[in-house]
Amino acid sequence: MFGTKKLKALIWSVIISMLASCGEVSTEQKSAIELYGNAQGTTYSIIVCDEITVTKDQIDSVLNQFDNVLSTYVDNSIISRINNTDDSITIIDSTGWFERCYNLSQEVFQKSKGSFDPSIMPLVDAWGFYRKESVFPSERECDSLCALVSFQNGKLHTFEVEGSELTLRKLNKNFRLDFNAVAQGLAVDVLADFLKQKGAKNFYIELGGEIVVAGKNREGDDWRIGIDSPEQSDSVRIIDKIMNVSNKGIATSGNYRKFYLKDGVKYAHTIDPIKGTPVQHTLLSATVVSENAGLSDAWATAFMVLGKDEAVRLLHDGLDKELDVYFIYDDGNGNYAHWMSKGFEAYLAN
């Protein structure tokens, strides 16, 4: 399974919405596949509106194979074997998923100027947000740990691929990888590839809040996806926006539920890999829509590191040509405010 490095803010009421849309359909549309299960420390939901054959066991098998490549919770996975070596290692990956994850991560690392960095594991461990007791390292300790964090190929490591053969050489033995902020989205993309190979054209996949939608729902409309409002209670979930979307990958990251308080200071669970400390800004959640869930997943994390102002600046510099983005942030007076890219407006339900 994968550790939860960020809050998954996409709500599950989307499933209720989709099932409701399947209620009044023509006879030839009544068949549908609905699969639900547990994987990667969370749950998944799949709905296919095509007459294909696919089973829960097949889905579980794909996800299990994926974990054997990219899960740090599997002792003999490819990423675990890389993290456990002190020097260099050559591994065969017949799936191609590690290279795919690595290359996607390098793309976002470069374009985000290091705000998305899968080598952040030493800092994550030091802050201990995902253990029962949090640890608050000193400024000096953070500075020291930052020297162990850089995903730049050639700085702390080198990575080469020849066919299915992967070779990673550590230039610092403490270099470790953690793809938790991208791998779950990529797992959804892998499931989408699997369904397409089976002949599916109209489907919805959700795993831990990461989503891929393709084609149309049972009514022949785009899929309806709800986004949580930060204003929630134990008994009521409030939808901030509803999207109509198809043939896209969607991910949301947020800090408004996952944090620690110490001496009156709120520490978010998102760590800035450049500064080595939890982020301190007004951005509460970032929803990203792109061509695949892995890319959306990685950028949602990057934006939560950058904060609203820096993220908007980056989008205006050309990134909005490949990403559609919706931000919820604190306006400085304790109120929720919103910003969306122009491309995102097209998804909003009437």
Molecular structure report:
This protein is α+β, with helices and mostly antiparallel strands and 350 residues long. The protein has a single domain (7-347), classed as Roll (T-fold), CATH 3.10.520.10. The chain is 29% helix and 26% strand. The strands form 4 sheets. Strands 1, 2, 3, 7, 8, 11, 14, 15 and 16 form a 9-stranded antiparallel β-sheet that branches. Strands 4-6-5 form a 3-stranded antiparallel β-sheet, covered by helices on one side. Helix 2 (56-70) runs antiparallel to helix 7 (180-197), helix 7 runs antiparallel to helix 8 and helix 8 (293-306) crosses helix 9 (308-316). The longest helix is centred in the middle third of the chain and has 18 residues, at 180-197. The radius of gyration is 20 Å and the shape is globular. It starts with 6 loop residues before the first strand and ends in a 10-residue tail after the last strand. The model is unreliable at 1-30 (pLDDT under 50).
List keywords for this structure.
350 residues, alpha+beta, T-fold, nine-stranded antiparallel beta sheet, three-stranded antiparallel beta sheet, globular, disordered N terminus
